[in-house]
């Protein structure tokens, strides 16, 4: 009896020992080494696909892996490949001749989900400071341009006071279209009527065509000059507005409009010239809506300075 108990106890210990060793072996295989690039690669893919929810920091064992990816050159190569794919798609599109194509860019929320990590690692801090300083420079340039425009606007108000010079100016503004409906300020109606025939003849000589048909609108007039220096009412410094007979084409040849064109060309621009870097881009859709070709593109990935 004693020997039977000994045998059973031996068998139990042997089975228990085997079970413990198997569990230990399984756990050792399931545990991910801290330097496992395979695990980090899988985590990165799951994160980019937005399958890793509510994450705020990169796993400790993947810090070096992500650092190497972000600043070691691989991220930039990924971006270059994405840009190549975009250009490849765009170059295959046949654009219409009517200029009615439109593009819609959609930023995927995956970009936003990574902001916490990069904020913690201070990625983009340099770009933020650089952009802040650039904005100050642009604001200074914009202030100078606005001051110049305000000064020029005041000078325009004096242009119509020179009757002889103003006649020549208005005639030049009229000589723009072959058949038009002409609108002017009510105070300029007599001036316009006095130079209409000269304007028609000059247009015919320049374009080597028949004199155009000009109809002066005597029902609708442009706003008058400002009544006061600080007036906020609509006003016009002078000039004319020309419209095709069907009203579909309007050419605003007022002095104020010409001034705006000049200053729009001189406004400061952001000289950064850098594209936002994202690690994933796809064409979502391409359709026609109300005659406009709408191309929708989606972007996803990580922000990077």
TrEMBL record:
Residues 1-19 form the signal peptide. Belongs to the V-ATPase E subunit family. Pfam families: vATP-synt_E. This is Acid phosphatase. GO terms for cellular component: proton-transporting two-sector ATPase complex, catalytic domain. GO terms for molecular function: proton-transporting ATPase activity, rotational mechanism. It comes from the Eukaryota. Coiled coil: none annotated. Keywords: Ion transport, Signal, Transport.
């Amino acid at each position: 009896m004693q020997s039977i108990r000994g045998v059973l106890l031996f068998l139990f210990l042997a089975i228990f020992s085997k079970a413990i060793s198997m569990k230990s072996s399984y756990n050792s295989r399931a545990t991910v080494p801290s330097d496992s690039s395979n695990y980090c690669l899988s985590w990165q893919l799951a994160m980019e696909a937005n399958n890793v929810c509510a994450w705020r920091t990169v796993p400790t064992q993947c810090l070096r892996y992500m650092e190497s990816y972000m600043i070691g050159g691989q991220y930039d190569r990924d971006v270059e490949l994405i840009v190549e794919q975009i250009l490849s798609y765009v170059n295959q599109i046949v654009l219409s001749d009517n200029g009615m194509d439109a593009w819609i860019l959609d930023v995927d929320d995956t970009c936003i989900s990574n902001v916490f990590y990069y904020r913690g690692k201070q990625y983009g801090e340099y770009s933020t400071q650089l952009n802040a300083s650039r904005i100050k420079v642009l604001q200074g340039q914009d202030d100078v341009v606005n001051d110049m425009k305000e000064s020029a606007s005041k000078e325009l108000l004096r242009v119509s006071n020179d009757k002889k010079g103003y006649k020549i100016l208005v005639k030049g503004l009229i000589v723009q279209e072959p058949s038009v409906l002409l609108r002017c300020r009510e105070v300029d109606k007599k001036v316009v009527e006095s130079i209409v025939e000269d304007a028609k003849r000059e247009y015919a000589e320049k374009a080597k065509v028949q004199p155009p048909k000009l109809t002066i609108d005597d029902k609708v007039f442009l706003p008058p000059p400002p009544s006061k220096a600080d007036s906020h009412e609509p006003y016009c410094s002078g000039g004319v507005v020309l419209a095709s007979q069907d009203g579909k084409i309007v050419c605003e040849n007022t002095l104020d409009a010409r001034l705006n064109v000049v200053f729009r060309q001189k406004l400061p621009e952001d000289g950064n010239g850098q594209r936002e870097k994202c690690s994933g881009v796809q064409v979502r859709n391409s359709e026609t809506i109300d005659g406009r070709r709408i191309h929708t593109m989606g972007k996803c990935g990580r922000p990077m300075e």
